[in-house]
Design a protein that fits this description.
single chain; 182 residues; mainly alpha; Protein FAM184A; coiled coil
Length: 182
């Protein structure tokens, strides 16, 4: 009985070693097998997707660099036009402005060349007078531009009782077209 057991055990060991060799050969064949066409197609699609993503990432990085440089350029231009250290705070309209700023604002924001001509001639229209806030002993300074234009007499558009809450009627078109001269 012991000899039969030993023989059976040796036969089983031989079968195990034979199966082990067969398994190793099969694993080697599996590792060195030819690729299937479906696998090759999936690999090609994945490579294309990776290439597209890399191109998109490269484009986004280039755009980011461009916009960063553009931001620096615009900030530089903005600082040249305005000021590099802005005065941050609340604007109080009741504070009196300096004379230099009033003169610059008056010449910069006048409504028509005719008003400028009147101001230069010293016959300004509007608010200069005893109640205007200017002291009488001040040296002659060109008068400030009027706060509001004087209405044209007998004009329906400049009627003093015109309701500012109600919109005006649209203007009527001219009968003949305007001719522009160069």
């Amino acid at each position: 009985m012991l000899s039969d057991f030993n023989k059976a055990q040796e036969v089983l060991k031989d079968k195990i070693s034979a199966l082990q060799i067969l398994l190793e050969g099969t694993e080697e064949k599996f590792r060195n097998r030819e690729s299937r066409p479906e696998d090759l197609q999936v690999i090609a699609e994945l490579k294309d997707m990776v290439a597209e993503r890399e191109a998109l990432v490269k484009k986004l990085v280039d755009d980011k660099k461009f916009y960063q440089l553009e931001l620096v350029n615009r900030e530089t231009n903005f600082n040249k036009v305005f000021n590099t250290s802005p005065n941050v705070g609340v604007i109080n309209p009741l504070i009196k402005q300096k004379k230099k700023n009033e003169k610059a604002a008056a010449s910069r924001f006048s409504s028509s060349p005719n008003l400028r001509a009147l101001e230069a001639a010293g016959t300004g229209v509007g608010v200069a007078g005893p109640g205007s806030g200017q002291p009488p002993q001040a040296p002659p300074v060109p008068p400030a531009p009027p706060s509001r234009l004087e209405p044209i007499p007998n004009s329906p558009l400049h009627h003093l009782e015109l309701d500012s809450n109600k919109p005006l009627a649209p203007p009527t078109p001219p009968n003949e077209p305007k001719k522009f001269m160069r």
